Amino acid sequence: MTEILSSYVAGGWHTPGATESARPVRDAGTGELLHSVSSAGIDFAAVADHARTTGVEALQALTFHQRGVILKKLATYLMERTKNYHEISFSTGTTKRDAFVDIEGGIGTLFTYSGVARRQMPNSTVHLDGGVERLSKNGTLVGRHILTSRQGLALQINAFNFPVWGMLEKFGPMFVAGVPVVVKPATDTAHLTRAVVADVIESGLLPDGAIQLVSGDVTPLFDHLAEQDAIAFTGSANTARTLSALDCVTQRGTRFFAEADSLNFSLLGPDAAPGTQEFDLFVSGVVAEMTVKAGQKCTAIRRTFVPKAHAEAVGEAIIAKLATQGVGDPREKSTRLGPVVSDKQRTDVLDAVDRIIAGGAHLLTGGREESDRLAAEHGGAYVAATVLQADDAWSDAVHDIEAFGPVTSIITYSDTEDAVRLAARGRGSLVGSVVTHDREFATEFVRKVAPWHGRVLVLDRDDADESTGHGSPLPNLIHGGPGRAGGGEEMGGLRGITHFMQRTAIQASPDMLTAIGGEWVNGSERRLGEHPFTKSLADLRIGDTLDSEWREVTLDDIEHFANFTGDTFYAHMNEEAAAANPFFPGRVAHGYLIVSFAAGLFVQPDPGPVLANYGLEGLTFITPVSPGDKLKVTLTAKRITPRETDEYGEVRWDAQVVNQNEEPVANYDVLTLVAKEY
């Protein structure tokens, strides 16, 4: 009997019995039956309940830093097991080169989000979003936005083309956000996703309920989704529209995020004539996007824009380079173009090619006849690399029909405005690229097409060696796009985490806002006493404060600082010129002299728990300091962030410098590293 792929739900593995609803999955390269996929027998109410109770409680008991540490350990654990994933990946039609993008690339996103959690977020369960807003005359009412973990689950519905990366690039941000995840992989490549999830479970690193896997139909789960839940979908624009109309979305408020297919473009700049480095880069980029994953990428180049004068040369160059790309068994090292994922996908791609041709394009290479020859020769779901050329640049077919395989259409443009309008004709895309060394053209073009695209790559001889290419989303930058591309965003560093959190505006007194947000707010309680620099993290508390002594600033101080540092700007050295400046009453002290004197006023010189000062942030000079003025500084522990993996943590101090009239002179944050114990 054919194996039925198991699911991991409600804390255990579930394998359906024999069922007619099970869908068979075959090796993309050989056609061999691998297994069947079905979700029959799963209690979807229990899936939702397990995530919202066990998962939410266990995951949200951890701080952002603790979640980040777990992600790093998990990424290391999975990276040690990639050999097995690559073996499985071959059966999906993916070459070793292409699988690296999916497997190692996916695991790499976990490393990235581990760093984001530990470096850009507090060691807490509340993340502050923006600064404090003063809401009243006397400052007794202030406001601030905070981000907290939602009390629901996040359902991933993923595409077949990236069964590892597609899961992990969503899982990383969701996990850091404190949201339990239910993964629904695409049927044709679910066995690779399952292998990774099995190792995730086996690692024992995740809290209970943090991840579940449904192999097969997930439709019954929609009836159990509600206001605190989210759906993150990757796939076709048509399916995205269907999901966005679900009752859970339209009536119960389930959040819906879509990253849909789009007709992405790459444009050859008017300066990039044959023989230039940019021309060669352009051709290589188009060919790479046609062959990597057999063109089955939501970011692949579907529309190839070229100046009319270079259309013939571009077509010839692309065809010549495609001829060097080995086609065949993805297990062979020489193969650059393997099969698409299934016979059904092959049929869909070739039907789309036929419709584009019927809609106003002609075939330069590839197409149905050549694809049939390859399929007969190799015995799998092969589609020949296919280059079309639009008979009319404004033919609807080349802008509306996506052949989700190794297919691109050459479309000519006449000038910059024409190119901009053609790019926008895609009605919203995940990515566009322009290959040019002309800064003026690039500036005008990019600024005008940016509203229609989630990401734009500008490629030339200067960045080519280190460029990751047109089709590679990076975890630090957003992945998503407007319009047809779904209107959603994924990744983008910290943005990817906050997508799955709840932003709430808090209005309260300074003391209350300090308690809720975990960061001292101006106007809240200060505690004087023992010098705070003598306290380790074990003893230091938010609000611990030092009020310094006074120090007079003399003219000799100003001149000495000027001569010692070389900063002899006229406002410090020339009374007449300084007085003529509308901002100064006469000669004034250097801003950095003020900061230096302030440090001398608050620093505790003896060895102690403060290990280092590693920076200042938000430095603002307010009232000029004249010779004879006196200064003092008030230093307050603003935020305390212990590090999970070190014997020290970070302390942010609020520094307020005032003059003898209690007028503010300078405000800034001092950043220090402080021992946990001393």
Automatic annotation (TrEMBL):
Keyword set includes Oxidoreductase: yes
Keywords, comma-separated and alphabetical: Hydrolase, Oxidoreductase
Domain MaoC-like: 542-652
Location of the region described as Disordered in the Swiss-Prot/TrEMBL record: 464-487
Keyword Nucleotide-binding annotated: no
InterPro entries listed in its UniProt record: Ald_DH/histidinol_DH (IPR016161), Ald_DH_C (IPR016163), Ald_DH_N (IPR016162), Aldehyde_DH_dom (IPR015590), HotDog_dom_sf (IPR029069), MaoC-like_dom (IPR002539), PaaN-DH (IPR011966)
EC number: 1.2.1.91, 3.3.2.12
Single GO molecular function: oxidoreductase activity, acting on the aldehyde or oxo group of donors, NAD or NADP as acceptor
Domain (Aldehyde dehydrogenase) ranges: 23-502
Similarity field: Belongs to the aldehyde dehydrogenase family.
Protein's name in the database: Oxepin-CoA hydrolase / 3-oxo-5,6-dehydrosuberyl-CoA semialdehyde dehydrogenase
